[in-house]
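Sequence only, no structure available. Ideas?
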Amino acid sequence: MNEPSGGESEAPKTEDPSVPTDQVAAVPVAVSVQAEPPRSTQDDATMSYGLIKQALQEVLDSGGEATLTKKFSGGKILIQPAKADLQAKEIPIDEFFKKVIRVRDQLRVLEQKINNHDSLTSADKATFQSYITRSYGALTSFNILFKDKDDHFKGQSSK
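Reply:
I predicted one. Tokens follow.
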């Protein structure tokens, strides 16, 4: 007897010897198996949170849209102690710039959270907003690092 090959099925055997086996047709049977949808688990939620956190960290690490001005690119910041016998600290200016951008981005997030907070009164929002504005003002010294003026820190304007 020939072995079935591939998708062919063997003809079923009959009990009645009067029916020739070549007249018995194979009947294809369709089997439908439906997989259960994946269940959401705490691990999935943690994984999703982890992926989101990693993506946000990459965006923050990229320095946003701001660009360091060309004259400082590749430079260093030297922090020199007053005492000559103490060692100075050099910081790559590109890394320092990323940290300045990170502070700016976190201030923006804080500002949005304050403005969208349901429990804060308008007076509270204005108070917190003034702290953020003063923080921006304190950071204006770093504006020399930015290539584009649109990226500059802006404090409270004197109108």
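Residues 7-11 have pLDDT under 50 and may be disordered.
Hope that gets you unstuck.
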